[in-house]
Amino acid sequence: MIEIKNIKKSFGGTPVLKGVSATFESGKCNLIIGKSGSGKTVTLKCMVGLIEPDEGYILFDGRNTTEMDFTARKEVRKEIGMLFQGTALFDSLSVEANIKFPLDMFTKMTAEEKRDRVNFCLERVNLPNTNKKYPGELSGGMKKRVGIARAIVMNPKYLFCDEPNSGLDPKTSIVIDELIKEITQEYNITTVVNTHDMNSVMGIGDKVVFLHQGLKYWEGTHKEILKITDGELFDFIFASDFLKDLRLRAHFDDK
Amino acid sequence: MVRIFETFGEYITLMYRAFSKPEKAVMYWNETFRQAASIGVGSLPIIALVSTFIGAVSAVQFAYQFSSLNLVPMWWIGSVVRKAMILELAPTISALLLAGKVGSNIASELGTMRISEQIDAYEIMGVNTPAYLVGPKIAAAIFVVPMLVIIAVFLGIIGGWGAGVGGHFYTTAEYFKGVTDGFKSYDVVVMMVKSLLFGFIISSVSCYYGFTVEGGAVEIGESSTRAVVYSSIIVVIVNFVVAFLLL
Ligand SMILES: Nc1ncnc2c1ncn2[C@@H]1O[C@H](COP(=O)(O)OP(=O)(O)OP(=O)(O)O)[C@@H](O)[C@H]1O
Ligand SMILES: [Mg+2]
């Protein structure tokens, strides 16, 4: 479980987060949704420690990372996997070397154990036999999958995904979402996913946090979200007039 | 002015972190060797070409000056070429070439890694990124640059031999008599001091500019230009200071 308490962050005097608190549960896909520029990436980066929040703190199963020095934080980081918005694969390394890197750096596994683990992760994301390819030779969806494989190679307790399906076609998006959901449940990971894709919200949103103007505007499950009938969240979910129309008509038919 | 102190402070902090204790020594060794190979092999052809010609040109120029004076024997040229190559030409010219080639390379590589969040990805895994990404590059440069300079000295001397013998200024025997005559090992010490310093300057300044890029492709370009310009400037200043102090 991860708790964030009253996180505030400004850039050059412009507040982006104005005191966000939320709880992210283990074994569930916790979604952070919001318009582009609403601070989803900043929230995620504050949580993993790539950005220092101005105020507030973050608890990883009770451990306050905001007060930790580099060495203590490193221990928590070894339990974290992250899929970046642009995948951030190491482009000078092959797919295999990308996934193997944390094993090389932090474990005493033998070469065989490492190879098996890498192959297991590649199979887990449905990319067998891509070991020797380089990131530059992969499609966007394949890169995301390699990113997930790299994120899970150390058996993380916490998984962070920043827009895992941006730039993918709807079908591949669903495949990636399902993969994240399965892995989360299988290993009881606390997963936090940033997205503005309503398909993901409906597909994997065990818990949904809606950010708006630097604050947590709404919180609930993907089932509850459909009951929203007005306000900012309604405008966000039913972005097009077509959907709004459809939604209102369905609502009307219910009665 | 404040900006200069800020930059310097950031640079010192990065260097301090770059030489903190590695978490897994073997990974750092491998990375250092990889960097050393890439700097060394990548720069050898250009250094070889340039130093050979510099040696040749020096010989021709000294011959031109000596012949008009008619005061000293031509075989002295060997000795003058050797001294010039060791004390000044090989270290400085190699360093300036390397600042252009290796400096821009390092800065744009690290800059690209920064912008594409690869450095963040290492960071998230728990890697001490300055130690892993900067430390081995500096260690490799400190190791490789002196070797390149030594090669440059030898090739420069050979260049001088080729030019002089080709131009009938002196015979092979005369030239190498000059090359070995009055050899002082202290000159080599000065050369090594310069080479080590230059290796450190080029790699660390370029790492700093690459590591701290913010923005996008344009900023990567700017930072790699800065890496080349500032490391070249610092190289020529330090070159003067070392000459002043040690000669
Ligand atoms: N390093 C930074 N320096 C200055 N401003 C920043 C920085 N990072 C983010 N911001 C600002 O913070 C705001 C929120 O950005 P963020 O990247 O979190 O948005 P987002 O919700 O992830 O958007 P998207 O869905 O487009 O990815 C933006 O207005 C952005 O300009
Ligand atoms: Mg974002």
3D structure, described in words:
The complex is a heterodimer of chains A (255) and B (247). In chain A, the strands form two sheets. A six-stranded mixed β-sheet of chain A has the order 6-7-8-3-9-10, sandwiched between helices. Chain A has a four-stranded antiparallel β-sheet with strand order 2-1-4-5, covered by helices on one side. Chain A has a domain at 1-71 and 193-255: P-loop containing nucleotide triphosphate hydrolases (Rossmann fold, 3-Layer(aba) Sandwich). In chain A, helix 4 (111-124) crosses helix 5 and helix 6 (170-186) runs parallel beside helix 7. Chain A is α/β, with parallel strands linked by helices. Chain A contains ten helices and ten strands. Chain A is 41% helix and 24% strand. The mean pLDDT of chain A is 90. Chain B is built from eight helices and no strands. Chain B is elongated, with a radius of gyration of 21 Å. By secondary structure, chain B is mainly α. Helices cover 87% and strands 0% of the residues of chain B. Chain B has one domain (26-246). The longest helix of chain B has 45 residues, at 25-69. The chains are: A alpha/beta (255), B mainly alpha (247). The interface between A and B is medium-sized, with 24 and 15 residues. Magnesium ion (MG) binds at residues 40-41, 85, 162-163, 194 of chain A. The site of magnesium ion (MG) has 6 residues of chain A, from helix 1.
Beta fraction of chain B: under 5%
Shape of chain B: elongated
The overall pLDDT average of chain B reads 94
Question: From the structure provided, what is the oligomeric state, counting identical versus distinct chains?
Answer: heterodimer
Low-confidence stretches of chain B: none
Helix content of chain A: 40-55%
Work out the helicity level of chain B: over 70%
Main β-sheet of chain A: number of strands, strand sense, barrel status? 6 strands, mixed
SS-based structural class of chain A?
alpha/beta
Number of strands of chain A: 10
What sequence of helices (H) and strands (E) makes up the elements of chain B?
A: HHHHHHHH
Q: Beta-sheet strand percentage of chain A?
A: 15-25%
Specify the overall morphology of chain A.
globular
What structural class do helix, strand and pairing data of chain B support? mainly alpha
Order of helices and strands of chain A: EEEHEEHEHHHEHEHEEHHH
Q: How far apart are the termini of chain B? A: 33 Å
The CATH superfamily of the domain at 1-71 and 193-255 in chain A is identified as: P-loop containing nucleotide triphosphate hydrolases
- CA gyration radius of chain B, whole angstroms: 21 Å
- Cofactors, ions and other ligands in the entry: adenosine-5'-triphosphate, magnesium ion
Count of separate DSSP helical elements of chain A: 10
